[in-house]
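Lecture 7 notes: from sequence to structure.
We start with the chain below.
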Amino acid sequence: MTPFYVIFAILSAGAFCETLNLNVRQKKIILFFLLVALVIFAGCRYQIGANDFEEYTKSYADIVKNGLNYSRFTTSAAIFEPGFVFTYYICSFISPSPIWALCIIALLGVGINILCYKQYSPRFFLFAVLFYFVHTYLLREMSLIRSGVAAAICLYSLRYVEREQFKKFALTLLLAMSFHLAAIVFFIVYPFYRLNWSPRKWGWIVAGCLVCSYVFSAGRLLNALPQVGVLSRLNNYSWMIGVSKLGVLTNPTVLKQLFFVGISLFFYSTLEQRVPKFRVLLTPYILSMCWLMVWNDFAIMAGRMATFLSVTEVLVMPLPLLLVKRSSRPVMATVLVSLAFAILYLNGNYYMTEVPGLLPYRFAPFETTI
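Predicted structure tokens for the same chain:
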């Protein structure tokens, strides 16, 4: 985990400096170096033994050999979404090495995310990147790269939600779905944003979802429907309903979301005045939490879908900095950096150690077998 802690330390130092009002030029310089570092770190990883990494590298070799001839594919390339396959195909003209392809995929995921963070959180941009690194980056850009690009495109599409340009929003989401089909869930953000519910109504919705998660969760309802197996995508996973549970009040992710959603709703009017795009950031985050709660007994449905709805989490988590006096921001910054470290520690000592091949970090250019 040492390389991860080094990057964390650099990001933390930058985040603390941000409370001292860095100028625009300084932020642009930091933005450039962060983008380069995170792209290289993710794109040049060597995770031999990790299922996702090996599938992506084997699929790239398949595409290098067979182009876009699906009938000749012998790897997961045959079932990957067309946008991802086409991106791999373009990369195949650059180099037959999968590292180039992984770097370009990382550039798409990291680049879109960081540019969106700069747009939606100009005052505390580095805090957003810090929270992105300790969770989203580790799980998506370092592993689930198809969903990483798709989720980044979903985040980008929020500008069309805010402007109420549904056609552009839909076209952008179709692009996201061409990298990962599960991005379809993001369509629900548009109508919920248009509803413009009050904080009180959102509070009742959250409470209702919490009750439903214990009384009759969506997984149990789905399992009770006849012929659920006809849904091809769910057919492979329907056996997991009730078997693999994420939990609600025992789930650290839900507890974290409840805390930040609670703060956001309680100080809704204040944050709406101080954060120009506050409502468009909060809406998908609340939906993500509600989704996790109601689908808590169907882990793969909860996790894979909620990951797209939670794209604004890293932009919501630094908002407490706007609720304290300027003189108290270093203290709040210390609390937030401590929280970020706790998330990194938990991910490093639980998720990343349980998945073979993720640790220790290995740099591909130093390996001779790739």
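Points to note: The chain is about 65% helix and 0% strand. The chain has a mean pLDDT of 86.
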